From TrEMBL:
Origin species: Porphyridium purpureum (Red alga)
Protein transport listed as a keyword: no
UniProt-recorded Gene Ontology molecular function terms: superoxide-generating NAD(P)H oxidase activity
Keywords, alphabetical: Membrane, Oxidoreductase, Transmembrane, Transmembrane helix
Superkingdom classification of source: Eukaryota
Keyword rRNA processing appears in the UniProt entry: no
Taxonomy of the source species: Eukaryota, Rhodophyta, Bangiophyceae, Porphyridiales, Porphyridiaceae
Membrane topology: Multi-pass membrane protein
All copies of domain FAD-binding FR-type, residue ranges: 252-381
Protein name: Ferric reduction oxidase 8, mitochondrial
Alphabetized Pfam families for the sequence: Ferric_reduct, NAD_binding_6
């Protein structure tokens, strides 16, 4: 029986309709631009068909608004038809027409700003409408933000040639509404430059602080600059939803305070945090927990104001919670925090790892921790256990969101897919941390193949081999050949004339993700499999 028949088992007209719906759902989850990812922006190349259709619709709507509201002013005849009779003489001057064009972009700018606020909420309506989580929708917030910057610059700069031609530049700039516009533009540029990927990654605290300060200032300045009533009407609902979301998450985190049960250093730059959860919290987590879930973690003794996202890696807890609640009044949930090599030594993660490595690490035990979440969802159209094969590819600490899913699939009561788990890692201590789980998963079934590529040359592999056992393949000083491993998995599940349904999940450095997505996309286009890809990443 093919996987399509498993997903749509009904017969007759209803069965054919269900069968067709699953094919449509599968097709919309494809990523057609991956073949061009060598020269396209990475985020654009990863868009699914459903997202591309939405992007095209959004571009068409914005283009239609510009065409109906502003473009007509660029031509002399269109300008003369749109303005009053006494102003038609000015339409003969190009800079005047450009000013008219830019002026009528103001309404579009209000609309874009309002829409940009929608994906920011952790419990946005878009999350429930699309089934995606905040970390998957935040790219739309960034792209809409860039559109806001472009339209705002076009709007503002279009006035300067006309003012300069009339020798009234400084008098116009001194008007209160124009001053408010300049202030709004300044704050918008601060937001834009502080949100660049390099700044976010290297100085997250600066990014967060500037966002908190500059965004309200930008909105207030924009409100006073142009048609306050119209802007308030457009932004009221997104701002209200954002405010309710913030208050709700603050109240929930303050009401359900956790404590750090233990803190332990793994290797040189990774800390393992065990958070204590009450019985009720564990029960709710078991009920609402999604694969590849993550939480915002705030530890006041390190930073009172900054929260950071970390994957839940409660390996060994999920199954217990799924079966029944633990008898004790508390349980633990685990996150792993890695301080980036060569990063800012004053960053949140570096401070935490430094404290865990010091003689005072025990002082963290029992410390308060505020947890917002869990959030997160898989970008797969179907439940992972229903695929013919699932291919995992993790790099370093990127194993933490994937290994709980591997464990769940191994113990799945459904028909278990063929599983391949490739982990490329440099830190021996990190391998030892998960060695027991990997050995248990690999020994559970012959359908599970686990390969650990220890990319650093080490001499103490004698510690690893007994812990990993005979069922886990260990390669030392080698790079993973992802294409070969992928072909081997497809060959295991492929039959004569069949096209297996494959899920590929990855979390790791960009180069590794690039290689995997390139290989999966090539095999999907060649008809070797029907593949869906999920990348776990905190790129915001």
């Amino acid at each position: 029986m093919s996987q399509w028949q498993k997903l749509a088992p009904e017969s007759g007209m209803a069965g054919r309709g269900r069968h067709a719906w699953f094919r449509v759902k599968s097709a919309l989850a494809k990523r057609p631009l991956l073949r061009f990812q060598s020269w396209l922006p990475f985020e654009l190349a990863r868009l699914r068909w459903s997202e591309l259709l939405f992007l095209c619709a959004l571009v068409l709507v914005v283009s239609a608004i510009i065409a109906s509201e502003a473009t007509r002013y660029l031509s002399r005849r269109g300008c003369e038809n749109a303005v009053k009779a006494k102003s038609r003489a000015e339409c003969a001057v190009l800079v005047h027409r450009v000013k008219k064009f830019g002026k009528h972009l103001g309404g579009l700018l209000h609309t874009l700003v309002a829409i940009t606020l929608l994906p920011v909420s952790r419990h946005s309506l878009l999350i429930y409408a699309t089934g995606n989580s905040f970390d998957k929708l935040v790219k739309w917030h960034r792209w809409l933000g860039r559109a806001v910057v472009f339209v705002a610059l076009t709007h503002g700069l279009s006035f300067f040639p006309s003012w300069a031609r009339g020798a009234e530049l400084w008098s116009k700039l001194g008007k209160p509404k124009n001053v408010a516009g300049l202030v709004a533009m300044a704050f918008l540029l601060v937001i834009y430059f502080s949100s660049m990927r390099y700044v976010r990654r290297a100085a997250y605290a600066w990014f967060w602080n500037l966002h908190v300060l500059a965004v309200p200032a930008f909105l207030v300045s924009l409100f006073w600059h142009y048609e306050p009533g119209a802007f308030a009407a457009k932004a009221a609902v997104p701002l209200l939803l954002l405010t309710i979301d913030k208050l709700w998450r603050w109240w929930k985190a303050a009401r359900d305070v956790r404590s750090l049960r233990s803190t332990r250093l793994i290797g040189r730059n990774t800390a393992k945090l065990e958070l204590e959860w009450s019985k009720d919290s564990v029960g709710n987590a078991a009920k609402d927990h999604h694969d590849c879930s993550w939480v915002y973690l705030n530890i006041p003794c390190i930073s009172r104001w900054h929260s950071h996202p970390f994957s839940l890696c409660d390996v060994g807890v999920d199954q217990e919670c799924a079966d029944n609640l633990p008898k004790s009044s508390t349980n633990k949930v685990v996150v792993y925090v890695k301080a980036a090599t060569g990063g800012n030594s004053q960053s949140w993660s570096h401070q935490l790892v430094a404290l865990a490595a010091s003689l005072h690490a025990a002082s963290l035990d029992g410390a308060l921790a505020y947890v917002d979440g869990p959030h997160g969802s898989l970008e797969l159209p179907f439940e992972p256990a229903t695929y013919d094969a699932v291919f995992f590819c993790a790099g370093g600490i990127g194993v933490t969101p994937l290994i709980p899913l591997l464990q769940r699939l191994v113990h799945s009561p459904l028909a278990r897919p063929a599983l391949s788990f490739v982990w490329c890692v440099r830190d021996v201590e990190l391998v030892l941390e998960f060695a027991d789980v990997l050995r248990a998963c690999a020994s559970w079934s012959h359908e599970v193949r686990i390969m650990v590529y220890l990319t650093a040359e080490v001499d103490d592999t004698h510690r690893l081999l007994p812990r990993l056992g005979n069922d886990v393949s260990l390669f030392v000083g080698q790079r993973a050949h992802l294409a070969q491993e992928l072909d081997a998995l497809i060959h295991r599940v492929g039959h004569q004339g069949s096209r297996p349904l494959l899920a590929a999940l990855t979390c790791g450095p960009k180069s590794m993700v690039f290689d995997l997505t390139q290989a999966v996309s090539a095999r999907d286009r060649a008809g070797m499999c029907s593949a869906h890809i999920h990348q776990e990443a905190f790129s915001y």
